[in-house]
Design goal:
The structure holds two protein chains of two kinds. In chain A, 30% of the residues lie in helices and 23% in strands. Chain A is of the alpha/beta class. Classes of the chains: A alpha/beta, B alpha/beta.
């Protein structure tokens, strides 16, 4: 038993949380026990209250600090994630350093997960005992203050990134907008119409694109990728690779003669998703921002064979530059917004749906391009032969979504997108349209009204998961058609529906390199691979790393309005940081005692926030204080015991363990006994 | 590689060419097969749906014998899909259901036998060829590539589903057999009905139902201009081959798709003699198909197959490329 004397005057506050805690834990008994049994451990008062977090509850703590001269406070209530700030603030108001307050989570860790009332009460006592022992070793801490660089980096130039960049730029602060494709615009630029209002995607997007392209405060870096991120909130240092465009953008006027003269035609698998061709020097689409083309060095004849240079010969301003090299630049920014978007589910992964094998099966994105007046068919909806209009079309929902073989989640946009397709098909072809759905989900504003409209237009809805799309005809009228085999779960029978064309509403997936990007920026991904928000409801655009924000589909499937809202929300958070000028950070941090560090580097890769670097010269590891989130992983891992944490020192943790084991009240069986019962239960 | 081998009744009689061709290529593949002593019938497709316990006990006897015999190898390999599925199901359900396991063992006790579920791994010949030997090794063994032979790869309905032990890369639409055929030098045709039923024993119970199922498959192979349909199951071969003639009579059609075993085509590609592989014993003559790879002389009446019309290059929208690592 560590002999920290009981000099401290500790107040213990046990919360009922309505019936959340009091329904399982005998809170009055817990408070009584603490007063009695923990008195020799420094507890001078223990109280219970229906809601400790209410202003009355907080005032109770404040008045006790003032009147009883408390030097430490233990609040047994919910998880510190929820109310640690509240109680620390209460202490601060009463003149006590806020870091001398400790919470025991008797809701999340006790009442919500323990059925037996007696066991729960015993467990709550142990938790409080642990907190009391720990709080002895707390020391007053002062928050860290870091200055905020007013420049911001936005990664990804889709609608979410554009929105965020514009919002920040409009407040007068500089923004770097980095996009890895040759133009900003993202997936939205590929769409034809947007649901449910059916306004043209390009008409509403391109004004934002050109605004971003010409904004004095936005520095656009297209055809560029982030290579490395150093530093922390307030002062990130980001290395960006500007890929060689082979076009001198100072000279280029965007006239397009190089594209016209280029003799090499390749399938455009990026913007046109493989259903059209582009040249080896190209701008992805007419309204591209910036307007400068890019030479695709993997397909360019000059790079393949060393001769051609047709583009160079015909360029009226000598802007083609085959000698151009990649350029590495370093950006200094205070905050980063990740708006890296999504990838479409690869429908070839479901071979029984025939995509890639049967010609007239299209993905949703291919169909978007086909509907688009600027697309390969100039808006004509035709079969793969490029001529024939389909007379019947089947749209399959949930391809790769809500399917435990692929992705368990709902991709959120496919229902509305499929309804939009059905409408466009009616309008432009008069074809008979079938929708094959599991459930129709139309929760957005005016979404269900649109669904009713499509129903009234005569689209046929078949409820059931499609088993197979095949060209193996069996019955009369199936010859030469695509046959959709499906169990119609409303009728309760198998159906075979022959159609001319099938559209697969493929789901949304995290970017293929999302985990790599997450590692690079020091944030985490969900099990599905989406970036994890700080709190899914209350803080959906922040991450666990200060100064790093997410917006749009990077954190999960979203439609356009939601992506735009997140872009604005992330921008607001950044602007607030910039306006404050400096930020106070939690002082709960790890630090390394250089003399004890053996330079083994075990901690380097363990840090989830990339806060630990290695000093090659001194051969010791170092912690960047502003990056450290005080998780304690390195402290536990260090074999030399060289790392300790303010707020989680060895002595604090050991004292807490002894307290949990009730060694302080001389009754080790109390906890062990309850634990054994728990195991049995 | 050593395996316990469960031949099953069909391979002894109707599917003799399957057994012969397996024996013919066994050495090339370095397969050591030790037959399960005193094995009995697996009960085929019906028994399990009618008398569950006797069916499991009947099959359990084979697993018990195999367990007794297992020295060095605890894998039982079956080449017949029905045998494979029955053995695999019995082991699986005995593992899941301790009451069943107990009941089966009570029955087995009468013969002084016992089976501990999970001790024997049941695998199909195709699985062994693909995963233990590997397509790369097969490719090296090919001495007479089947160049120009158009093959429809047919799995039947019992090998990939239910995929109790997760042995197949895609039970809904497998493509591994196609990869094997490509390795032999053959040209694989699209065959969307690859896992559809051949009719099974419906030929005995309700021939008309079976004829329709047979017609679909044969028609599918003909539609894609396959020279031969390759199968991994004695029952599929029997139905599609022996009943093709009956089916033609029934529908007044004239399909002539020879149905061969995977081991026969492998043997041909390994340079074995067609007779040794049991070729020529099928109902639908494989002569015209073998002629395409220079292994049979054609009768005067059998005109050489007309060269397929070359599709003219179309001006339509490009097709998506194959997935990385995907065999077409």
């Amino acid at each position: 038993m560590s002999e920290k004397n009981a000099r401290e005057r500790i107040g213990v506050y046990v919360c009922h949380c309505g019936t959340n805690i009091a329904g399982v834990v005998d809170v009055k008994e817990v408070a009584r026990w603490a007063t009695e049994r923990l008195a020799n451990r420094g507890v001078v008062v223990a109280r219970d209250d229906k809601f400790m977090c209410s202003s009355l509850g907080q005032e109770l703590i404040e008045s006790d600090i003032e009147k009883l001269g408390l030097t430490r406070v233990v609040v047994a209530a919910c998880s510190p994630h929820l109310h640690e700030k509240t109680f620390r603030a209460a202490c601060a108001r009463a003149g006590l350093n806020p870091y001398l307050c400790e919470m025991a989570s008797i809701r999340e860790q006790v009442s919500w997960v323990t059925a037996d009332k007696q066991v729960a009460t015993q467990k709550a006592k142990a938790m409080i005992s642990g907190a009391v022992e720990r709080v002895h070793y707390h020391v007053p801490l002062e928050p860290l203050r870091v200055p905020i660089n007013e420049a911001t980096l936005v990664v990804g130039g889709g609608i979410a990134g554009i929105q965020a960049a514009l919002e920040i730029a409009n407040t007068g602060h500089p923004v770097y907008l980095v996009e890895r494709d040759p133009s900003i615009g993202g997936h939205m630029a590929q769409f034809d119409k947007t649901f449910p209002t059916l306004d043209c995607a390009a008409c509403i997007l391109t004004p934002r694109m050109s605004e971003a392209g010409s904004h004095p405060n936005i520095h656009l870096l297209t055809w560029s990728e982030v290579e490395k991120v150093d530093g922390s909130v307030g002062s990130f240092s980001v290395a960006v690779r500007k890929k060689a465009r082979y076009v001198n953008t100072d000279l280029c006027t965007g006239c397009g003669i190089c594209v016209e003269k280029c003799p090499k035609k390749v399938i455009d698998s990026e913007f046109e998703v493989g259903i059209a061709y582009r040249k080896a020097v190209y701008t992805p689409f007419a309204q591209a921002v910036p307007r400068y083309p890019v030479v695709d060095d993997l397909n360019c004849i000059y790079f393949e064979k060393g001769t051609c240079k047709a583009c160079e010969k015909f360029c009226p301003t000598n802007a083609i530059d085959f000698e151009q090299q990649d350029e590495l630049i370093t950006l200094e920014v205070g905050n980063i917004i990740l708006a890296t978007g999504f990838d479409l589910f690869d429908a070839r992964r479901i071979p029984q749906y025939g995509y890639g094998r049967l010609a007239n099966i299209f993905t949703s994105l291919e169909f978007e391009r086909m509907c688009n007046a600027a697309g390969p068919t100039e808006g004509a909806i035709v079969l793969r032969d490029g001529r024939t209009a389909p007379r019947s079309v089947g749209i399959i929902h949930c391809v790769g979504s809500r399917d435990r073989n692929y992705n368990p989640y709902c991709s959120a946009i496919c229902c509305m997108q499929s309804l939009k397709f059905a409408h466009l098909l009616h309008e432009r072809t008069g074809a008979k349209v079938y929708n094959f759905y599991i459930d129709i989900r139309t929760p957005g504003k005016d979404f269900d009204e649109f669904y009713q409209r499509v129903l009234e237009e005569g689209t046929l809805f078949v409820r059931g998961k499609v088993a197979e799309v095949t060209d193996a005809a069996r019955l009369l009228g199936e010859e030469g058609k695509l046959i959709i085999q499906v169990e119609d779960t409303l009728v309760g029978r198998q159906r075979r529906i022959p159609v001319d064309m099938v559209i697969l509403s493929a789901g949304l997936e995290p970017r293929r390199d999302a985990d790599e990007v997450a590692r690079q920026f020091g944030i985490s991904c969900s099990s599905a691979g989406w970036f994890t928000e700080k709190h899914p409801k209350l803080d959906p655009v922040s991450t666990m790393t200060e100064g790093l924000f997410v917006a749009g589909c990077a954190s999960g499937p979203k439609d356009i309005p939601a992506s735009v809202a997140q872009g604005s929300a992330a921008a607001a958070r950044v602007i607030s940081y910039i306006e404050q000028g400096e930020l106070s950070l939690e002082p709960v941090r790890a630090f390394i005692e250089a003399a004890k560090c053996s330079g083994c580097r075990i901690c380097n890769d363990l840090c989830p926030f990339n806060a630990i670097t290695f000093d090659e010269q001194l051969v010791v590891s170092e912690i960047t204080t502003a990056l450290c989130q005080g998780c304690g992983t390195c402290v536990a891992a260090c074999p030399a015991g060289a790392i300790s944490g303010t707020g989680f020192s060895d002595e604090q943790v050991l004292a807490q363990i002894e307290g949990l084991l009730m060694l302080n009240v001389g009754d080790p069986t109390a906890f062990v006994g309850s634990h054994a019962e728990l195991v049995e239960a | 590689m050593r395996y316990l081998f469960y031949p099953g009744c069909s391979m002894q009689r109707t599917a003799r060419p399957y057994l012969d061709s397996l024996h013919a290529i066994q050495e090339t593949l370095e397969l050591e097969l030790e037959e399960v002593h005193d094995w009995n019938c697996c009960g085929a497709t019906e028994y399990m749906s009618i008398y569950r316990l006797p069916a499991f006990a009947l099959i359990g006897r084979n697993l018990a014998l195999a367990q007794q015999q297992a020295n060095g190898s605890s894998t039982v390999m079956a080449a017949c899909s029905a045998c494979y599925l029955n053995l695999s199901k019995t082991d699986h359900y005995m593992r899941e259901d301790s009451q069943l396991s107990q009941d089966v063992n009570t029955a087995l006790q009468a013969g002084g036998l016992r089976y501990d579920p999970g001790t024997i791994a049941v695998r199909h010949l195709l699985d062994v060829i693909l995963n233990d030997i590997g397509v790369e090794r097969i490719r090296e063994l090919v001495t007479r590539p089947l160049t120009g032979l158009r093959v429809a790869a047919y799995y039947g309905c019992m090998i990939v589903r239910p995929d109790l032990e997760h042995r197949w890369e895609n039970p809904e639409y497998p493509t591994a057999l196609e990869g094997l055929m490509t390795a032999l030098g053959a040209e694989v045709v699209d065959f969307p009905l690859k896992t559809h039923c051949c009719g099974g024993h419906m030929t005995q119970i309700s021939p008309e139902t079976a004829y329709e199922l047979i017609r679909r498959l044969v028609h599918g192979a003909a539609l894609y201009e396959a020279d031969v349909l390759v199968t991994v199951c004695p029952m599929c071969q029997l139905n599609l081959d022996a009943y093709q003639v009956e089916m033609n009579k029934h529908f007044k059609t004239d399909y002539e798709i020879p149905i061969l075993f995977v081991t026969q085509l492998m043997g041909l590609a390994f340079g074995k003699d067609p007779d040794e592989l049991g070729l020529g014993r099928e109902f639908v003559d494989s002569g015209p198909a073998l002629a395409k790879i220079g292994l049979a002389a054609l009768d005067d009446e059998q005109a050489p197959p007309s060269p397929r019309k070359k599709r003219k290059k179309e001006e339509g929208l490009p097709m998506p490329p194959p997935m990385e690592g995907e065999l077409r």
